[in-house]
């Protein structure tokens, strides 16, 4: 083999796109690309609206652009997390094929090239299909009313350069995740095997959390300062939500570690003990399985406040003493539509992420489940442990994420909006629906758990 690139076509075959893990990656990137491109197209549409000059519409155009940008930011991290989790799925589960190359004399660079190329192929196929999915989904979305009229299909079509940029971003996420997955692959002349990385206290994560928490009040103060330019204030406000999502993501893994420690001490049954052990072994993995719901709770806190604002605006429109233009009434109605869209897309991301992560975890822990079954543990007990390991921390991380969202919105929107019942109803409804979706994903993964536990290591 003369080069890593030349080695790839030799070993990539039909299984590269038909293996269970490859189909999971392909499906995940299809869903991720479809939703990501649709959201980006919606934001692009608002920025292409020509400015209106009538006095009643003053500031309305800017409000639409601002709200569309906020909605996109609230969905960027959940979509990126799903893409990263999907790409990581098979990067360290290729022991046999990589071992064959190693025993045949392949170089380390050639093996690494294959390890990256194998998940990349189904990911690119999924992304390309996702572009077609976006073009198809844009048609029903184009009938949604904004600004008092349907969006229109032509307005949902992004320029080719922007479309290529989004596709390139998803491919870069896949490559980066595959390279990170190589950290758990040991390559030697005698073969290739996965290894267990030494568990260390996440000092870097703690430092990042501290920095983000310090930045939050500073950026928040800038967004409310009357002495800064409007563009700076808007950028600071958008940064508040972006940093808030980062804090949720960083602190979530730490909370999972703490939850597993407490649950292990109080375990009173085998499934509780196994659940605590599963989480404590790899808290980051289990955080990925519930992070979508945490992000949705954060989004719901912001969106619920938006619905409260919409209600207040429509109530003001009924008051003859309060001058409210038709354009403002349309804006309030469109805010409600936008919030429902953002929350709906978040729930879909939760559903896809839950299924991908549940099935991937079963395959990745095939040896553990096979050993437990050989030791006499039945599949129902193992499944109960998996359910408890996933659903146990969900309430805590959801409360944390929703509470942080309310805390950040409070100084921007005011207590009158944040404390309205509709805000809390939105958070609770989104969390409840997310928990149901995750639970259904666990149930779908049960037959796979049974086959893996009774048949030994699953062949991906």
Features of this protein?
460 residues; mainly alpha; 2 domains; two-stranded antiparallel ribbon; two-stranded antiparallel sheet; 17 helices; globular
Please provide a written account of the structure.
The chain is mainly α and 460 residues long. 78% of the residues lie in helices and 3% in strands. The strands form two sheets. A two-stranded antiparallel sheet has the order 1-2. Strands 3-4 form a two-stranded antiparallel sheet. α3 (20-47) crosses α6, α9 (230-266) packs across α10 (270-281) and α12 packs parallel to α17 (421-455). The longest helix has 39 residues, at 326-364.
What overall form do the CA principal axes indicate? globular
The major beta sheet can be summarized as: 2 strands, antiparallel
Low-pLDDT sequence parts:
190-197
**Adjacency order of strands in the biggest sheet:** 1-2
Topology:
Blueprint: H1 4-11, H2 15-18, H3 20-47, H4 60-88, H5 95-103, H6 108-141, E1 145-146, E2 149-150, H7 160-181, E3 185-188, E4 191-194, H8 203-224, H9 230-266, H10 270-281, H11 283-317, H12 326-364, H13 366-374, H14 379-391, H15 394-413, H16 415-418, H17 421-455
Antiparallel strand pairs: 1-2, 3-4
Helix pairs in contact: 1-6, 3-4, 3-6, 3-7, 3-12, 4-7, 4-9, 4-11, 4-12, 6-7, 8-9, 9-10, 9-11, 9-15, 10-11, 10-14, 11-12, 11-15, 11-17, 12-17, 13-17, 14-17
């Amino acid at each position: 083999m003369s080069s890593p690139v030349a080695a790839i076509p030799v070993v990539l075959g039909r299984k590269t796109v038909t293996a269970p893990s490859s189909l999971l990656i392909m499906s995940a990137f299809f869903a991720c690309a479809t939703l990501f491109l649709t959201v980006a197209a919606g934001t692009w549409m608002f920025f292409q609206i020509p400015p209106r000059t009538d006095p009643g519409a003053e500031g309305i155009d800017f409000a639409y652009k601002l709200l569309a940008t906020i909605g996109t930011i609230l969905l960027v991290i959940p979509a990126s997390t799903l893409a990263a989790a999907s790409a990581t799925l098979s990067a360290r589960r290729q022991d046999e094929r990589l071992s064959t190359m190693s025993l045949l004399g392949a170089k380390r660079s050639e093996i690494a090239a294959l390890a990256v190329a194998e998940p990349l192929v189904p990911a690119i196929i999924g992304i390309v299909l996702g572009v077609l999915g976006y073009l198809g989904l844009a048609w029903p979305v184009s009938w949604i009313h904004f600004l008092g009229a349907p969006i229109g299909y032509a307005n949902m079509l992004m320029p080719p350069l922007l479309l290529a940029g989004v596709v390139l971003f998803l491919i870069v996420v896949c490559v980066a995740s595959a390279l990170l997955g190589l950290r758990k692959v040991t390559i030697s002349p005698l073969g290739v095997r996965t290894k267990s990385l030494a568990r260390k206290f996440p000092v870097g994560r703690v430092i990042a959390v501290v920095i983000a928490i310090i930045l939050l009040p500073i950026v928040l103060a800038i967004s409310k300062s009357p002495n800064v330019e409007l563009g700076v204030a808007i950028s600071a406000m958008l940064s508040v939500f972006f940093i808030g999502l980062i804090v949720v993501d960083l602190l979530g893994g730490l909370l999972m570690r703490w939850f597993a420690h407490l649950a292990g001490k109080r375990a009173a049954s085998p499934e509780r003990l196994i659940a605590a052990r599963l989480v404590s072994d790899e808290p980051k993995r289990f955080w990925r399985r519930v992070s979508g719901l945490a992000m949705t709770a954060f989004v719901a806190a912001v969106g619920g406040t938006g619905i409260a604002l919409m209600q207040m605006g429509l109530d003001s429109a009924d008051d003859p003493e309060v001058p409210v233009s038709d354009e403002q009434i349309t804006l309030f109605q469109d805010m409600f539509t936008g919030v429902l869209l953002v929350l709906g897309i978040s729930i879909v991301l939760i559903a896809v992420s839950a299924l991908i992560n549940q099935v991937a975890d079963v395959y990745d822990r095939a040896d553990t489940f096979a050993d437990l079954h050989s030791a006499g543990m039945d599949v129902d007990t193992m499944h109960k442990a998996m359910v408890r390991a996933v659903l146990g921390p969900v309430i805590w991380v959801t409360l944390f994420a929703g509470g942080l969202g309310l805390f950040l919105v409070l100084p921007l929107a005011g207590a009158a909006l944040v404390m309205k019942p509709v805000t809390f109803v939105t958070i609770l409804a989104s969390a409840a629906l997310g928990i149901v979706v995750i639970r259904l994903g666990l149930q779908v993964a049960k037959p796979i758990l049974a086959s893996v536990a009774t048949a030994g290591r699953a062949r991906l």
